[in-house]
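Example 9 (inverse folding). The structure is encoded as follows.
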């Protein structure tokens, strides 16, 4: 039987008086890539936020590794081996690549730092080439690689990716998705929030479609990719 690593059980969330999520239920099994697709404003980033404690769920439960983390502080959740790559990358622009990676390893085991950074450089050779360069002078694609590498430095068991392809050239998008596939092959569990539905569904084991804060579809990635309604709404027909 597959182990459920993360679940949302009828989770609702608000921004002030505005309800952004409506009793959302979903789950991610250990070792899966699960993607969440939807239009801008559907509530995708809000859903990731409730997992990380901001905003807090106004009702329902978020459970990670059999622990109810609904009311946990963000720092405590990150210590539970959850890492997020936020939309827009948010690297430390004045720091070098290597200094950014060191910041990502803040919660990791200190004696494994060199092992982790070597692994990240193997995943992203470009980061090794740029390791003494200030992050703010790098291209958008390189900054996205750095943002993912920084998250991986914390030794996560669950990696959250919020729009990793946003604003990137097609060749860089393919590199990023190839790396996500490598991580899955190495056993990492990944929750991928992505507007590039075609790429995301090709990669995902399963997917959910979010509309106006409601989950309206759940299926395998392949079936969602072939679904006429999904193709019409998110894949250009």
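The amino acid assigned to each position is listed next.
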């Amino acid at each position: 039987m597959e182990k459920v690593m993360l679940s949302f059980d009828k989770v609702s969330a608000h921004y002030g008086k505005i309800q952004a999520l409506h009793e959302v239920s979903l789950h991610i099994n250990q070792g899966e890539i699960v993607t969440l697709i939807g239009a801008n404003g559907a509530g995708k980033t809000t859903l990731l936020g409730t997992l990380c404690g901001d905003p807090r769920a106004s009702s329902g439960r978020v459970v990670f590794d059999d622990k109810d983390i609904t009311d946990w502080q963000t720092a405590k959740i990150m210590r539970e081996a959850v890492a997020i790559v936020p939309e827009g990358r948010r690297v430390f622009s004045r720091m070098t690549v290597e200094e950014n990676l060191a910041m990502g390893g803040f919660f990791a085991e200190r004696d494994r730092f060199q092992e982790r950074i070597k692994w990240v450089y193997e995943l992203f050779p470009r980061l090794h080439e740029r390791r003494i360069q200030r992050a703010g002078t790098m291209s958008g694609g390189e900054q996205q690689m750095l943002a993912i590498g920084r998250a991986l430095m914390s030794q996560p068991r669950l990696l959250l990716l919020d729009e990793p392809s946003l604003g990137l050239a097609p060749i860089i998008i393919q590199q990023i998705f190839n790396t996500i596939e490598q991580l899955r092959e190495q056993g990492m569990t990944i929750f991928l929030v992505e507007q590039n539905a075609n790429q995301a569904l090709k990669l995902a084991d399963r997917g959910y479609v979010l509309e106006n804060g409601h989950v309206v579809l759940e299926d395998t990635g392949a079936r969602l990719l072939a679904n006429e309604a999904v193709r019409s709404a998110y894949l250009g027909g």
